[in-house]
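Budget justification aside, the reviewers requested a transparent look at the raw inputs and outputs of the sequence design task funded under Objective 1. We therefore reproduce one unedited record. The lines immediately below are the structure tokens for a 635-residue chain.
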């Protein structure tokens, strides 16, 4: 059974959470979808782009999240149903537009729009674990959140209906353990994809004269709150008079359920699950918390539900009600929700003994895991051009001798900051920030700043957010150098298309934006080089460091995985001549270059090659000081 079947069978389908969100959107008849790839959200647009190949749907990878939301809003203004998807960091990019969109609404053409934002508690693949739930009140937007894979599909469909009814965009919050978990779901029939788009040119829509708009938004949100009071996604389960009620949403529900099973507390503790987070369904919550005199708030990262609950109780106090959660210290104020966290809190509050596995068991489990699971550090793939680029950059900066300062950006190049990288980046924040920071540092000459300023940025990040910062540098005559790592892919999040790849989200050919021509047009001193030419790259960087103004060095070499998929061969047959290898006396290849295909033999101390993962790029041949690594170029 296909995820895109119009009339699915009753047997169900095993899907990922992000695929369930995509299916829910299809069942609701979505026709315009846009986003920028960012883990853990990427699979939503990826899945919908596959559907777009056979259905009347427009799917795109936009240059950034703000543009994606603007495109989705345009479709909604024209009467279509739309969706934009992003990770937590991307929501910050889109907010400028979305805060205005709440004031105007979606017009009267009957369209709908969802903004799906996937948070990353525990910062598995992010620079932070910001909690996007706070942005719903900030942007005056309704917010809903699923607790299961099935609910992710059903809630997405329901939210699009809600959006169309109230003529406003609706936020749907995902999170890593929902987005990337999998389960069997029941699918309903697909919606119709035959709406015709049209704009009403006789009506002006804008957020100005905001006082009137704001009053109307607040009135609308109160009507949505009333709807939330009776939502099927808000549920109480448990005894009529429990000793304690766990109030939760999202991942808190399955974790709390598992904790109650482990402690055998189903007959003593109630579970109040809230799926419509904001506007907070006050009456529904107050009705059920009246059953008890103790509450435990089980949620991850920030105390959002706890704040909403206490705000409600400030106006409608419940006598002798005790509230436990993050502020009481019973639930940590960081990281993901886990059953263990709930178990620990319940054990303390209800004086229920609970013993974890013995230390001997934990030790044995750890030993088995270390024997069976291969640890692969956060590092570039074998043959990744970024390893060669940073190798050359480090040597050029050291040889220059002026203590060059390197700012970085988000993407595969970010792996430089981890122990398996070169740790050459000095400053790293958000997408495009590296270029903006470099532009700022490049203005500090009059204040005695003499260090060369170098920004390292990937090609997808360049299109996403670095171009305005680069223009700023040119316009304000900053003294900076941009090293643009062009591997022709948004590799870190799954090889999605971007404006420099020459194809779109559906894999179809499109106009390729030439980075070199763009930089030249902006007035930058622009050079293109192959990072696999190590000596030439070092010399080129050193030469550019001596110059002034805005300089751009494009280090262009396809991502190795993209190249391998296309060419299906290895450029070099690489061998290590053990008799020439100095082993531990040198170890440049294993301790400094750190390609995963090279390792030091424990017995001999010599370098050996893992042929099964070696890409045959040949860069290690150039960096070996004793010429013990040889390579024969394939014909």
């Amino acid at each position: 059974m296909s995820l895109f079947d119009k009339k699915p069978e009753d047997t169900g389908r095993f899907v990922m959470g992000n695929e369930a969100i995509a299916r829910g959107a299809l069942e609701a008849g979505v026709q315009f979808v846009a986003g920028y790839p960012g883990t853990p959200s990427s699979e939503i647009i990826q899945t919908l782009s596959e559907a777009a190949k056979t259905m009347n749907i427009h799917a795109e990878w936009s240059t950034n999240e703000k543009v994606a939301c603007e495109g989705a809003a345009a479709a909604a203004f024209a009467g279509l149903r739309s969706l934009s998807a992003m990770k937590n960091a991307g929501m910050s990019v889109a907010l400028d537009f979305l805060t205005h969109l709440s004031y105007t609404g979606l017009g009267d053409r009957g369209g709908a729009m969802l903004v799906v934002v996937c948070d990353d508690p525990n910062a598995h693949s992010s620079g932070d674990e910001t909690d996007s739930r706070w942005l719903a009140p900030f942007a005056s937007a309704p917010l809903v959140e699923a607790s299961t894979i099935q609910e992710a599909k059903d809630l997405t469909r329901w939210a699009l209906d809600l959006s169309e009814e109230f003529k406003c965009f609706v936020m749907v919050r995902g999170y890593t353990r929902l987005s990337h978990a999998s389960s069997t779901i029941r699918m309903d029939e697909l919606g119709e994809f035959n709406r015709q788009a049209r704009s009403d040119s006789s009506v002006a829509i804008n957020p100005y004269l905001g006082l009137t708009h704001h009053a109307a938004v607040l009135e609308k949100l109160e009507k949505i709150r009333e709807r939330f009071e009776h939502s099927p996604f808000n549920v109480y389960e448990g005894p009529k008079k429990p000793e304690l009620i766990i109030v939760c949403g999202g991942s808190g529900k399955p974790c709390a359920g598992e904790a109650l099973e482990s402690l055998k507390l189903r007959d003593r503790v109630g579970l109040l699950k809230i799926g419509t987070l904001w506007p907070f369904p006050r009456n529904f919550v107050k009705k059920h918390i009246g059953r008890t005199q103790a509450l435990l708030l089980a949620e991850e990262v920030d105390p959002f539900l706890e704040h909403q609950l206490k705000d409600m109780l400030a106006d409608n106090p419940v006598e002798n009600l005790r509230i436990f959660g993050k502020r009481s210290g019973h639930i940590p104020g960081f990281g993901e929700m886990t059953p263990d966290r709930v178990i620990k809190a319940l054990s303390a509050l209800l004086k229920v003994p609970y013993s974890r596995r013995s230390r001997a068991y934990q030790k044995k489990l750890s030993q088995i895991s270390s024997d069976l699971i291969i640890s692969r550090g956060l590092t570039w793939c074998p043959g990744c051009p970024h390893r060669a680029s940073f190798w050359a950059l480090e040597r050029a900066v050291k040889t220059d001798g002026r203590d060059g300062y390197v700012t970085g950006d988000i993407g595969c190049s970010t792996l430089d900051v981890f122990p398996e990288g070169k740790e050459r980046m000095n400053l790293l924040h958000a997408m495009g920030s590296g270029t903006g920071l470099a532009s700022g540092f490049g203005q500090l000459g009059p204040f005695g700043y003499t260090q060369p300023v170098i920004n390292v940025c990937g090609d997808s990040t360049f299109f996403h957010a670095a171009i305005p910062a680069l223009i700023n540098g040119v316009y304000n005559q900053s003294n900076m150098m941009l090293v643009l790592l062009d591997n022709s892919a948004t590799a870190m999040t799954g090889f999605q298309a971007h404006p420099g790849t020459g194809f779109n989200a559906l894999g179809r050919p499109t106009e390729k934006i030439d980075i070199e021509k763009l930089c030249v047009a902006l007035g930058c001193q622009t050079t293109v080089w192959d990072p696999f030419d190590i000596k030439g790259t070092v010399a080129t960087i050193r030469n550019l460091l001596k110059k002034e103004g805005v300089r751009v060095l494009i280090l262009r070499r396809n991502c190795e995985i993209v190249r391998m998929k296309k060419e299906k061969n290895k450029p070099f047959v690489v061998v290590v001549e053990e008799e020439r290898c100095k082993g531990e006396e040198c170890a440049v290849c294993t301790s400094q270059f750190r390609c995963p295909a090279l390792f030091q033999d424990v017995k001999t101390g010599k370098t050996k090659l893992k042929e099964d993962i070696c890409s045959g790029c040949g860069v290690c041949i150039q960096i070996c000081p004793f010429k013990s690594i040889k390579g024969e170029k394939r014909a």
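The chain has a mean pLDDT of 91. The two ends are 45 Å apart (CA to CA). Computational costs for records of this kind are itemized in the attached budget.
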